[in-house]
Fold each of these.
Amino acid sequence: MKEILSAKKMDNIHSDIRGPLFYEALEMQKRGIDVLKLNTGNPASFGFTMPESIQNALKDQIHLALGYCDLRGMPEAREAILSYHKSKGICDITADDIYIGNGVSEVVTMALQALLDDGDEVLVPTPCYSLWSNSVRLCGGKPVFYVCDEKSDWYPDCKDIESKITDKTKAIVIINPNNPTGSLYSEDILLKIAEIARKNNILVFSDEIYDRLVLDGFSHTSIASLAPDIPVVTMNGLSKSHCLCGFRCGWMVISGPKKISEGYGQSIIKLASMRLCANAISQIAIPAALNDKETPASMVRAGGRIFEQREVTASELSKIDGVSFIKNKAAFYIFPKIDCKRFNVTDDKKFARDLLHETNILIVPGSGFEWREVDHFRIVMLPQKEVLKSALQRLGAFLDGYKQN
């Protein structure tokens, strides 16, 4: 029998968050080594628990999850999602414009499959959560990376966006709040991106999974609320705001003129129908979660875990010579920059591997987020602040005298 070969489309697919270095860390753990895994944003791994509101919803309604539900999602869940997004200013949408999926990961794939033919281009930020770039490739498209500028609070560079639009460009992706930088986009930058989409007749995908985890009194604005005249697909879910990663509960909302997006919506229906329905148990949690504003608010206000862990991270990073950073305004990630000349860094994956084996700390290098330089890495700020403080002090000690061979 001939060797079974991988499909060519897999050649450029990578998942560094749970990639080769992650498996090295797992092998270390098997040998009894205590590894601090700062690679993935999984609150449950760091002691965040299920909110009581979710527990009560499941206890009282679990029997409703026995059968297949509506291919778009349970009506009660979609009505709750509808109310939530209307409260954020997205107009002229109905429950039929909402599709619930098994996490945002699934709805991203569905949204791209329904749009892309082979060779079509999608504008994707760099740095970005690699789900987007990988999914574009798997759907036959080409991710074209536009720069988010560290010198401008990691905002998208609109001139760079415009310079990369071609007759093959079908959509632009924004991740707001951003992963991996924790940046929160201003209304001004969102209006500029909307105008670019309007002028060039391209769809906007807006990944807003961290919109309820905003710090320092800032507020999140949905781009769809600023541009009711253009098609926008807004993605959101419960994984982060209510610590329900394992529930795989996400959704998308298609807004804008229906006469423009009607054909696209019909393709989404076909895809949703093929997979029958999303996980019904997780959908039971949606109305309760979206009514429970206190859980996410309690984490990001002063004294809350995410706020305090962000504060200690910023404080300790500022003490490390050769490391700089932009303090995040949302989410629980920070994307520090290392002085490559000082440490002779030419390979960010080697830097992450050296750090793992020297300190037992696992991070993701910037290249894992489609960052083209070797000078950044992402830290997940979910461990208790005492753990983070110790880890960052070990990082500082590691860098003291570090030179990459």
Amino acid sequence: MKKIAIIGGGAAGLSCAVMSARKGYSVTLLERGARLGSKLSATGNGQGNVTNLDMSASRYFSDDPLRVSDVIARFGAQDAIGFLESMGGIFLPDGRGRVYPAGRQASAVTDLFRRETEHLGVRVMLGARVTSLSRRKRFELSGDGFSEEADVVVLAAGGKAAANFGTDGTAYALAQSFGHTVAPLSPALVQLRCDRESVRGLKGIRTEAVLRVLRGGKELCRYRGDVLFTDAGVSGDAVFRASSYAEKGDKLLVDLLPDVSEARLRAAIGEARGEDCLLCLVNNGLGRMLYRKADGKEGLISLLKSYPLTVEGKLGFERAQVTRGGIPLKETDGDLMSLKRSGLYFAGEILNADGECGGYNLHWAFASAHCVAEGI
């Protein structure tokens, strides 16, 4: 029986383990942490946004968009839902196409995988950090106090983002030992740092807004969602989505009242004077700050509909949800097997493919694992 060793017990590793074990292979899953699926349990603000009905390669960033398109064409949103429901549970979309477990609990999705791997007889090794990977007749894996052999190895150890979940970027060295390169790494789906004067005194204020990103006067993207002001910039759903496009020096324009026209604002403000002229329009603290900044009534309306911020950078990997960069897809074949070493496969975030916010990165984990399992 072909023996498969999967390095990494996150969404991609767990999916590949289940899919491969269902085909009758002997599967060993090696996870460096104390628990499987730690990062999976935190996804979607703890609610488990597992995929998105609006699935398209245009939602991803990669060195090989055509390969991404092929991978998700082979395993689309309905395939992901069907795979997850084959283990139990019900998964439903919200109004924006984001798919969640009906119970809105990400940790329960992890529990589905744990139950299924146990049922299928997957051998799970926790606290097993692989530090050496080589191949003679078979692959040889070793770490502190253990060694394993396998016919096939799947590297699904994640990227460099969110080191608290055990993804600190050290797994790239295992691929590099076989001659693979690593595309430059940077944090993605992360808070943006902005000029401090523009966010001074606004920490903790959250609002539903439309956020636009401009570079040289050209709009790069716009998203509607939560914008949360922090002591150093902005966070929230809309910001995470925009962070895939924003770079240092870009301009952010925030429509703080996207459902209210300028004419209606003009009427609501009327001839009101003083810092209380925006009562029941925006958060009181935000309103007072805007009033102090504005040059008259028209200036105030302009700030409400297009509040400007300048991007000074992004927070680091420790605060990011995913990693941009990684093992180039062009160094793999159509089933995501290494072109450098036969029998070595890649799945999930370790590859140079990251998606927008909204379930796209978890979908990549499932879809890439499917390609690997089929290839094996």
Amino acid sequence: MEKWERLERELEELKSRSLFRRMTVFDSGQTAVAEVEGRRQHLFSSNSYLDLCCDPEILAYTGRILEEYGAGSGGSRLTTGTTRIHMELEDTIARFKKREAALVFNTGYMANVGILTALAGKGDIIYSDERNHASIIDGCRLSRADVVIYRHNDMDDLEAKIKAHPGRRGIIVSDGVFSMDGDIVDLPRLAELADRYGLLSMIDEAHATGVIGATGRGTEEYYGMEGSVDVLMGTLSKAVGGEGGFVCGSSTLIDYLINKSRSFMFSTALSPATIAADKKGIQLIMEQPQRVRQLQENVRYCCQALKERGIEAHSETAIIPIIIGDEGRAMRVMELLKERGYYISAIRYPTVARGSARLRAALMASHTKEDMDGLADALRECMELAD
């Protein structure tokens, strides 16, 4: 039909440029070894960094809560009420992040959109790192505030841009760990600039929680700066092993967001079973810091294994980017790796800049040295074959 021709042309254009996307079907949980489209794969693409998605303690506790509370939440927490388990999760998050209070959103995306649109509006200003996640970008746009983009992790550029807009009320927002590069925000400088110029600081801890810091508490712990960030946002769908997003901070901040954040107010709450999985996941991170230490040791080992095979790899986080450049070549390497039993996602434009396509290796605490050595060997072979 004519009315679909434009969409079909655009899809064909994406295919011609190796930018067409399709979903990969899993026949098992997200664990270090998974069943992917009928093949056993060593999984190096999952954000379940501590391999908690299928943890027996989490599954058992979630099952009990499912029987007690049922499958659904019934509606918005402000309209139909909330469950005790939701409140317990928020108390657990606040204790874990050493804050007065916390609030859970349905996703990290909805958390960022809901926070930024509530805290900033017309006449305000948001300073945003150029490599921030899409959810931050969209939250900035939807807020109707003026948005100023500063160079990636460049605090001198940030300060120059703050000075160019003196006296404005606003927010500095940044990822804590950047999702495609695996590098860490310069929090000491960012927090100091926010305090000096009277701006709110907001850090997205999605890829930092459970990953960096001595006990996995994230960016603040990594720098020894607990309590320095005004708005600490994160997700429960990565190292925690469940689903949902969160924000924590002062009780004033949380009360304000409960009353002003539209993505919280007008969303049906996550199911009690999902909330239970989140709660148990955070408790396990708090009780078993050895999981975090093992993940951090795996990062060091894997980077060294890749370097020994001539593959450039640098990271202090669970994300190790392997830059390929050309989108088509990145896809060829990914498919060759799958044939050898290693699943890594190829990341392409618009997720990253044109011509900077990469394989995004995501490590788990449960990966063995044999897993990582096997990946490094296969990656060297496949990169040569893809030329």
Amino acid sequence: MTTSSTDQLRHWLRTMVQLQSGHNEKVHPQWDEQGYPFTRAIWIECAELMDHYGWKWWKHQDADLDQVKLELVDIWHFGLSALMIQYRDQVVGVVTDEINAAAASHDQLEFREAVESLASKALRGDFSITAFIAAMQALPMTFENLYTIYVAKNVLNVFRQENGYKEGTYRKSWAGREDNEHLAELAQTLELDSETYIADLQELLAKRYAEVFAESN
């Protein structure tokens, strides 16, 4: 990876660390001291991901790659949280180096094998960046793809928390469509590189949510 692309990677990682910290603090102000089982969440998400990709040799299955990528992003939310606890203030530098090393590796895995390796490491209490990057490469999915989807999904996750997700009052289906679908539609109307992208997406999401349920009441 070139110096310029490494700098871009560091920028993306800093942004994601800030967003993840903000989301985690909404779950609990001292989230990093609660012993949350992030690696358990990872191996469970791996199983959900495999259902979307397909693993049954006895029947025809078409991979839903958009959903697979969303599941990988969900795994990254949990993995990044675990890395933030492990490396603290050094997380951006350490993770940048590990991603570069993993991306440069010539040990390519088939997608299902990469996911199984990721799940296996998670079952032992470890988030493997190497296995995660191997899964991304096998799709393929770039780190820019990961960042783009992550930012949008993080906005949705924060929105859910602010609107009763933890308390069970949040409504995930809006006018017969999941909130993920509304999010994707709204995100396409904005420029990712805009300095106000996150704030603009938050505003559009809140407006859509209010409009949908105002009409239904």
